[in-house]
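Page 37, continued from 36.
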């Protein structure tokens, strides 16, 4: 591993931050990011760093301060404010205590903050406080864990890193670890680092650079030692891989909804019987080689590399034995059985240690859904409440499997014992790092057709605001790309923009596959794509009529048919909402092609509600009156027919909008958000309703569904 230190970047950081935060914190920020930039050192909120300095209190008196990372903050993107300042002397006086419970410790930390509104400091704050060195760096480096998570770990660490480091047996992070670390170092004043077995590495120095480079140096030594040990056997292991990447990826596309369906948690609520997750694939050469190893099952089901990973991955992954990847019905049974067993084992594990976690009623502690599923011939599936959480699980899993297979080359893996695992998994201070509030559409995936238009984009936005993951689909092109960028800038990895031509069965199937590739499956289908044409029946061009038939009628049929096949495969119900139109009930002259083809689409959706009810798939319709625009996005349909309608009625654009407003009894302007709110009503399953139509039209008595 190379030091990423650059004099120039360090100077840039000082120039940027020193005027407000001082040079020390500017450099602390810089080298913290260097640690965070390397996934082999820390992952997502792992690791922590600190610097000691002074702060001036409200009386104008300088006070010794510790600037330490806020709990759960990501080192890769940390800002100076991510290291809140605490009163150092106040923290150090705690060292005389024999023990200090978590809640009391957090209370002390929060009281010691100079800024009462600052983030809660890291669980390892007292370690940093009790050491004398100015800068302290802590990571969970892969190479260090590859040494510490073995039998005879202490000997191996000494052999690899020499006398420069102190080795300390596992102690759960918190007060006792801080105290033990300080004591161990008092007798070894010349040490440059400390290795905590089954946890990680701590280094220090008088400058940010010294502490960081000692860290890199020790990790490099560990890497070299592992490299030297691993070589002979690795050469022998080079053989034809059992599964090719292409085969595994193709299998994922087909099998993902089956896996996702089997992992969904039963809620006991008849309106929302399943709690789905987002499922991301981890299919890489190393991962496939791992799951195809003869000893993979045993090796995979060993404890995690560090207790820090537990809140993300749980203590053990789910292993699927002998999966039948060619027979999806059989695969579903296999995964369902394995998941059931996993849940039972998990409950038993909780019961075995329940005395250690009395009074923990946090729902984050009771969910027994596996986070990592390992499938020979396929790779790993990583589950989370959202794409971000699943992405963290994926990164941790990639590193975990790499370290475990590395250890298997040279020795025997030995992780933390079950009581330690349990303590860390259910520790309130750890659970607090996971989002507690679940949005109404959390874990759900929607596909929206015709998303680049006014109504489609409005629906995407409202679904995203309520926690859904959304695949925005439309014809390939600039409008779709712009929408994708706009939504991603706000909702990041919960957004997917996919090209989809609803008139092409291949394109529809490919879009569903694309969503499965990205999120594991689909729960909500918004059939919204549509087109209009203005002409009297007498002058209607047959080709124009057929074009509308293909988009509005066949398009709806193809999307609903694909949705039906998908929902059957996934086995956890689903929701379909068709964006219909008030014209189905109150058609307009000159609007024959549109009204007739949309009426056919509407009828197809009603048929779907009959056919799909046994699968717990609800199909409903919303029927809006004219929507002209959503923000800066004008309705494509109105761009097309508006001029003709205006001409027909002798109105300009503003007058036309006014005309539509005045024809409803509430005198309401209909917006895309109104339509999206009606979609949301169905998508969140507020009532047991299917095959129904909700008008969104301000009240048009002649368009009341009948
Ligand atoms: Zn740690």
């Amino acid at each position: 591993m190379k030091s990423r230190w650059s004099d120039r970047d360090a100077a840039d950081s000082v120039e940027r931050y020193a005027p407000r935060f001082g040079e020390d914190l500017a450099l602390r920020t810089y080298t913290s990011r260097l640690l965070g930039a390397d996934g082999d050192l820390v992952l997502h909120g792992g690791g922590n760093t600190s610097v000691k300095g002074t702060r001036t209190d409200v009386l104008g008196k300088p006070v010794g301060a510790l600037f330490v990372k806020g709990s759960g903050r990501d080192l890769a993107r940390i800002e100076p404010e991510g290291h809140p300042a605490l009163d150092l002397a106040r923290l150090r006086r705690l060292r005389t205590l024999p023990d200090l419970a978590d809640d009391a410790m957090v209370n002390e930390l929060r009281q010691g903050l100079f800024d009462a509104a600052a983030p809660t400091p890291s669980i390892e704050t007292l370690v940093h406080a009790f050491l004398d060195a100015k800068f302290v760096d802590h990571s969970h480096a892969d190479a260090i864990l590859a040494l510490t998570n073995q039998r005879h770990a202490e000997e191996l660490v000494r052999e690899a890193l020499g006398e420069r480091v102190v080795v300390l047996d596992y102690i759960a992070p918190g007060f006792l670890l801080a105290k033990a670390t300080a004591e161990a170092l008092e007798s070894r004043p010349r040490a440059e680092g400390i290795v905590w077995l089954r946890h990680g590495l701590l280094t220090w120095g008088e400058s940010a650079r010294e502490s960081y480079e000692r860290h890199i140096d020790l990790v490099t030594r560990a890497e070299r030692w592992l490299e030297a040990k691993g070589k002979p056997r690795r050469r022998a292991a080079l053989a034809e891989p059992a599964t090719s990447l292409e085969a595994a990826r193709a299998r994922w596309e087909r099998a993902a909804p089956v896996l996702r369906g089997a992992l969904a948690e039963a809620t006991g609520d008849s309106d929302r019987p399943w709690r789905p997750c987002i499922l991301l694939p981890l299919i890489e050469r190393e991962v496939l080689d791992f799951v195809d190893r003869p000893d993979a099952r045993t090796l995979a089901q060993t404890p995690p590399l560090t207790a820090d990973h537990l809140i993300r991955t749980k203590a053990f992954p789910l292993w699927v034995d002998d999966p039948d990847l060619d027979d999806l019905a059989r695969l579903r049974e296999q995964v369902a059985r394995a998941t059931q067993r996993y849940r039972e084992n998990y409950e038993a594990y909780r019961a075995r240690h329940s005395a250690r976690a009395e009074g923990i009623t946090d729902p984050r502690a009771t969910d027994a859904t596996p986070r990592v599923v390992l499938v020979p011939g396929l790779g790993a599936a990583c589950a989370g409440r959202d794409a971000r959480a699943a992405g963290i699980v994926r990164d941790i899993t990639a590193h975990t499997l790499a370290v475990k297979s590395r250890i298997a080359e040279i020795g025997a893996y030995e992780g933390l014992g079950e009581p330690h695992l349990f303590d860390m998994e259910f520790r309130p201070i750890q659970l607090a790092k996971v989002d507690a509030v679940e949005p109404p559409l959390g874990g759900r995936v929607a596909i929206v057709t015709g998303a680049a238009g006014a109504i489609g984009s409005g629906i995407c936005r409202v679904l995203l605001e309520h926690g859904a993951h959304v695949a925005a689909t439309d014809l390939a092109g600039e409008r779709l790309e712009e929408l994708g960028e706009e939504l991603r800038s706000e909702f990041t990895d919960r957004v997917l923009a996919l090209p989809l031509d609803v008139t092409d069965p291949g394109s529809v199937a490919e879009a569903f596959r694309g969503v499965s590739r990205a999120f594991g499956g689909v729960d909500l289908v918004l059939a919204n794509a549509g087109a209009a044409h203005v002409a009297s029946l007498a002058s209607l061009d047959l080709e124009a009529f057929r074009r509308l038939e293909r988009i509005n009628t066949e398009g709806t049929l193809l999307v609903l048919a694909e949705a039906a096949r998908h929902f059957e495969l996934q086995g956890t119900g689903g929701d379909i909402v068709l964006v219909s139109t008030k014209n189905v009930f109150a058609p307009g002259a000159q609007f024959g092609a549109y009204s007739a083809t949309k009426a056919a689409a509407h009828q197809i959706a009603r048929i779907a509600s009959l056919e799909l009810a046994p699968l717990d798939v609800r199909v409903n319709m919303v029927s809006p009156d004219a929507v002209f625009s959503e923000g800066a996005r004008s309705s494509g349909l109105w761009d097309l027919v508006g001029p003709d309608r205006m001409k027909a009625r002798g109105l300009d654009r503003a007058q036309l909008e006014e005309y539509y407003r005045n024809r409803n009894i509430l005198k309401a302007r209909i917006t895309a958000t109104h339509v999206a709110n009606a979609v949301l009503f169905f998508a969140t399953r507020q009532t047991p309703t299917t095959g129904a139509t909700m008008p969104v039209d301000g009240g048009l008595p002649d368009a009341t569904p009948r």
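Residues 208-237 form the longest helix (30 residues). Flag for discussion at group meeting. The first strand starts at residue 48 and ends at 56.
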